[in-house]
Amino acid sequence: MRTTTVPAADGFPLAVQVTGREGGPALLLLQGQANSHRWWTGLREAFEADHRVITMDYRGTGGSRGPAAAWSTASFADDAAHVLDALGVASASLYGTSMGGRVAQVLAGTRPQLVDRLVLACTSPGGRHARERSTDVRRQLAVPDADRRRALHRLFYTDAWPHSPEDSHLLGDPTMTADEARAHLHASARHDAWEVLPRVTAPTLVLHGTDDLMVPADNAALIASRIAGATVHLHPGGRHGFFEEHADEVVPLVRAFLH
User: Fold this and answer.
1) Which architecture characterizes domain 2-258 according to CATH?
2) How many Å apart are CA 238 and CA 161, to the nearest integer?
3) For the purposes of burial, counting CB atoms within 10 Å of the CB of 110, is it exposed (0-12), middle (13-18) or buried (19 or more)?
4) Secondary structure (H, E, C), the chain
5) pTM above 0.90, yes or no
6) Contact (Cβ atoms closer than 8 angstroms) between residue 155 and residue 137
7) Average predicted confidence (pLDDT) for the chain
């Protein structure tokens, strides 16, 4: 993995990681809320033979640290566009999961010329049109950190998943401060791409697990209804982390779509 620091437009240091085929078509992977590039550990490798795989740590995660502020999915999309430009990438495919899917929606809708293909997984359009998680799920997450991690594990994985919460790369960056985590929560909660989505011109694949309680699966159809020609694939029984738990089935779908 080649790592570098790219100063954002305002000078904020963004940690960037590049793997895969040098000179290959660019693939930008965008992870979920309050997570660094480690989210993609064990997943990015499947794309490296064909792509120049790029990840970045959002502000407030991993190696991208500085003062917490009023971040948004739009500001994270601006950072992603800046990273691609700094790496000399004129256009890239995007694969965004959870909040990363929200960031990808904004990036693809506001800069359509920058996006070749778009994959959105377990994500939502946000705003008043979105299908939100239930009060019960919100209650499960409003607990102390140790209990919250166990609650997240149940929401991300089925009972068949053989690994413990400590083994997961998807349950949050433990190095984040309370202010950074709160800023990420607000960024995701304020997301609303309803008016932006029709501007997406890239071929789009929308993926979702049917049993996702964090972001209900109805959001997949809502997103697809706003993007011309978008295709939806619902994974039976999948929860919020279905793209990892069922990677042996999901990754081939994504790779075939990207080709």
Assistant:
1) 3-Layer(aba) Sandwich (3.40)
2) 11
3) middle
4) CEEEEEECCCCCEEEEEEEECCCCCEEEEECCCCCCHHHHCCCHHHHCCCCEEEEECCCCECCECCCCCCCCHHHHHHHHHHHHHHCCCCCEEEEEECHHHHHHHHHHHHCHHHEEEEEEECCCCEHHHCCCCCHHHHHHHCCCHHHHHHHHHHHHCCCCCCCCHHHCCCCCCCCCCHHHHHHHHHHHHCCECCCCHHHCCCCEEEEEECCCCCCCCHHHHHHHHHCCCCEEEEECCCCCCHHHHCHHHHHHHHHHHHC
5) yes
6) yes
7) 97
CB-CB contact of 40 with 61 (8 Å): no
Model pLDDT for residues 166-205, shown as the tens digit of each residue: 999 999 999 999 999 999 999 999 999 999 999 999 999 9
